Amino acid sequence: MKIAIMGFGTVGSGVEEILYKKRKSLLKNNFDIEIDRILIKDKSKKRSPLNKNLIFTDNFKEILNSEVDTVIDVTSSLEETYERILSLMKAGKNIISANKAVVSKYFEELNELARANNVYFSYEASVAAAIPIIHPMMEEVFFNDINKICGILNGTSNYILSMMEKEGLSYDVVLKKAQDLGYAEADPTADVGGFDAMRKIRILSSLLYNAKIKEEDILTFGISTIQKSDLDYAKKMGYSIRLLAKSKLDGGKIDISVIPTFLKDNFFAKTFKGSNAIKVWGENFSSYELKGPGAGKLETADAIIRDLLRILSAREIKTFYDGTNSYDLENNCLGKYYLRTSKISSKLEDLIDQDEILAGDHHIITKKTSLDKLEAAILDLNEVFIAKIEEEI
Ligand code: HSE
Known about the structure:
- Helices cover 35% and strands 26% of the residues.
- By secondary structure, it is an alpha/beta fold.
- It has two domains: 2-122, NAD(P)-binding Rossmann-like Domain (Rossmann fold, 3-Layer(aba) Sandwich), CATH 3.40.50.720; 140-293 and 328-389, Dihydrodipicolinate Reductase, domain 2.
- Strands 7, 8, 9, 10, 11, 12, 13, 14, 15, 16, 17 and 18 form a twelve-stranded mixed beta sheet that branches. A six-stranded parallel beta sheet has the order 3-2-1-4-5-6, sandwiched between helices.
- It is globular.
- Residues 100, 129, 154-156, 183-185, 191, 196, 294-295 line the site of L-homoserine (HSE).
- Residues 100, 129, 154-156, 183-185, 191, 196, 294-295 line the site of L-homoserine.
């Protein structure tokens, strides 16, 4: 069985490492997997694969025209990778992708194309790395009503928040550590801005509700403006802060958001370092919780290899997603919020319940309000940190 890989960064080299080190065990179980070739951008860059005979190419056509029937995508580019996946699917090749930006942005198109060309489209590695979440959800949707999902879905943000909280380290120092550990993307804007978690909750929610959910309709707040004073303030109130991505289907409406959240000593508050944590609510089991590595080289490669074995042994689920359900997206559930800002607008003034000024900054607790109202009230303010105060999850 010959496969190809697009990209040979952290995760790509993890895939090669597992396939090389576990070759004997895989062979014993009839998985004779050979990497036909690997697509890379810069052929002159020094690489150290375990298998020294690997073929690297910078010519996409070599992969497109090859005989491999499954291609693993571990790239980080968006449009170029999307175009390439389109060509590969049209050429009858199965796709396994860990590229959350592509899987999220083109979820509808890629599923449709996979169906039209009768190929597999597998993306377990695009959400929460080693934690099996996509496949259990793919199975649940046939016979269970999953109506709510909540998760810590970005390892970098969790590393930053929990290390600032526990070790008292500064934002810049912990971000650098998260980059050194391979959690953060080369450009960490999407990690700390909440967009990486937004893409993951979009993928999960689209699948669970078989609905079209636009990325731009998901209210997204990240942690890039957090300061030590926010963690101190939360601590004084008895809370930890974690970045939560949530969606809930209720009464024909989907409430979906990504927002730092004040949490009291629960499953999510007890999630540390680069871990991810997910809680799912369903008709048949009330709820269950999963926790584990949501980023990293072998952790992400592990999910890819599982997809690969499922495809090679014809155990993979063919896509059923067609986005036919239509729901309103809204963020008007009432809740209390914490805000830190140096200035206050008149719109914001109406929403304030408590305001404590510390070192020139307003630390505000709002009255019960909705996230969309609050977003409108802070639009003109710079450098605001905002968090939801969770009553229950
Ligand atoms: N940068 C991502 C994270 C990697 O920190 O979670 C895994 O998707």
